[in-house]
Amino acid sequence: MIYPHRVVVSVLCAAIGSALLLSACSSTQSMANLSETGAGIMFPVDEQTADQILASAMSRQFSGSPISRVTLPNPGYQTTIRFLLDSHTVVAYMIPVSSLSTEGEMIEGFYFEVSNSGTMPISGGNNADQLYDLIIEYAEREADPLPITR
After folding, report:
1. Most CB within 10 Å of its CB: which of 77, 125, 143, 144?
2. Prediction pTM value
């Protein structure tokens, strides 16, 4: 015998579960455009130092989670955090950039981006924010930030 209230409850549970699974969130934080004028900041560090900044920040923020290297669209690292049916992927990139110094000489360096997406908008987004702050902290230990000018 089919009980109508069980069918209604099953349909409601399926609808709520589907909505939760399909409700994804994504965002990107970038040093490319930070100020009101649209100018970003970069750090005059070499590729090895930029890579170490990302690796150290990822390892600290996501200790115990598998972290893998990415190469496209830019080099960096990614991890996916999971809880029950939810998952959230966080990717940190290092983007090469050239900028003019106040003396007019070309300076090579990197700026950093953190993107995140998934179905854990609160904890996933908070982890991405904390990672971004760590990257800035580690980068500032290596070099003073400079405005990106062309």
Report:
1. 77
2. 0.79
